[in-house]
Amino acid sequence: xxxxxVNAKQARMPTWAGQVPCRYRHRCGAxxxxxxxxxxxxxxxxxxxxxxxxxxxxxxxxxxxxxxxAVVAGWxxxxxxxxxxxxxxxxxxxxxxDIANETLEREIEKYGLLPRTAAVSPNVIDFLSRPAxxxxxxxxxxxxxxxxxxxxxxxxxxxDPSGRIVASSNWSEKDSFIGRDISYRPYFQNAxxxxxxxxxxxxxxGDAPGYFLASAVEDGGRRLGVVAVxxxxxxxxxxxxxxxxxxxxxxxxxxVVVSSVPDWKFGALRPLPAATLAHLEASQxxxxxxxxxxDWKVLTTFRNGSFLVRAGTPAGTATYLAAGRPxxxxxxxxxxxxxxxxxxxxxWGWAIACAALAALACALLHVLxxxxxxxxxxxxxxxxxxxxxxxxxxxVEARSAELRRANEGLRREVSERxxxxxxLQSFQEELIRTENLAVIGQLxxxxxxxxxxxxxxxxxxxxxxxxxxxRNDLATVRLNLGRISDLVARMGALTGxxxxxxxxxxxxxxxxxxxxxxxxxxxxLAHRLTKDGVVVELLPPGGVLTVLCDPVRLEQVLVNLIxxxxxxxxxxxxxxxxxxxxxxxxxxxIRVRDNGIGLTDAVKAHLFEPFFTTKKTSGLGLGLAISADxxxxxxxxxxxxxxxxxxxxxxxxxxLAEQKETCDA
Length: 665
Ligand code: ADP
Fold this sequence. Notes:
Member of the two-component regulatory system DctB/DctD involved in the transport of C4-dicarboxylates. DctB functions as a membrane-associated protein kinase that phosphorylates DctD in response to environmental signals. The protein is built from 15 helices and 22 strands. It is an alpha+beta fold. Residues 560, 564-565, 568, 594, 596-599, 603, 607, 612-615, 619-624, 648 line the site of adenosine-5'-diphosphate.
């Protein structure tokens, strides 16, 4: 019983039988035991608040990590592409500066020869070594102009040792240099023989900027003066002006002297200290020009030396990538600018692509991780289910063995019971036979009496028949033989009834005609009834009443009931027994009523108990107990009650049979 209940329980919830570890058990304190029911994928535990909380938290952490990775990747991509772009632009700037530097060097090299050559010219030495005459000045001026024009320089002039210009190629022009004192000019002060000294300045006469090249004139170690040439840097400016991106040259003080953006010219890239301004004023390098500070701010300096600068242009403020290099010969710095917008645009593109890739990779990792966890859980779940299944099988096997044992026990018990029932039946049969034998014993006297009479008659008739045969009275012989035959038939009927009563029942239940059984019982008891002067009144129904029972047994019951009725009423003056039968509802009813002593309460209480009898000598006390048992065996009942007018009535109730009697013999 227990095994069956457990099996039914197991069968009802197979998917909950095993458990797998919850992936969040280490984080939540595992108040639930850290396990989820097997068969229930944790992915689908949407109704569990704790699981949903951790799932949300994990998602947010993954999202934050993805954002962080995207930002870092974007930033790294941006930086790398930016650096590559800046390096590329720097390389371009370097090439531009190479070209410019080459042009400059070529120019300076070309024109640097001019003052050195002039300084060793006999005409110049001769002119400076002697006091000047008007003719000599005119002559040297012409020569200087010729030289200046053929070389393509702005001006060529001679300075005496005191710093006064004594001859000049522009002697005939309005703003002639002749007579000017340039002793304050560094190129004059620093001029050396056999070498060319360069210096950038704005002319004090014509306010024209230019590059001055000077070489000292000496004769036998005596300083006679200086030959100076003024160059325009137009060629360099022309070279840069053609370019779409600005370029400039600044002096050591950061003042722009050459620029492709005219607005920047003579502006300072940084505020100049007062001492520098005073020095500039003194040297008149920029001819008293006001040196304004340009809108120029270095934003970032890169590793390759280039830097990001924000500069004000006539069109507005712009950001440039700048690269510079010193030009030592000119004591200047060359700076070329380029638009970094394209670099930044490409870098931003790469940054977005890198960020997107990183975010995608993070999302992919998240999905793969979730899938890995899910697969691991599913495998664990499958294993748990398998383990649970195995456990269940073992349990079922154990329960089956238990059941088998219980079944064996039951079977043994059933066979024992069957054996006991059989024994009981055989015991009952024996009892019935015993009771029957008792009845037969009672009947035998009557039957013997019944048989004695025909036997005496038979003896007489047969003796008579012999005599009538000797007389040849065949008619009387035939008559006697006919009577003998009738008597034999009657005796046969009597013994047949007795045999029928005493015979063992087949136990076969079938439709039994009640009337025949009543007649049989009354016939068996006929002698006793006659002897005791009992009147038996039969009250049959209108038709034939058939009930379901064993006819032999029913007859035995009726004999028993009528015998008891005879016993109870035989002492009366007019004993009267009434046997009635008929159908009532679904049942067939047979009543045996007597007008005897009736049933006391004490008798009633034990009436159907075995071995209960009030009869001193003849009773066994089994008749009613066996009769009641027989009737119960047919699905009926045997009851007894007192009659209102005295005596008792025993009532047999049996199921009605639909067919006519078939089992009746
Ligand atoms: P037995 O006839 O051997 O005594 P029974 O079982 O047939 O055994 O009867 C039991 C007892 O029931 C009888 O001894 C008698 O006291 C009582 N009894 C049976 N039938 C009747 C009846 N018709 N009227 C009064 N008493 C009866």
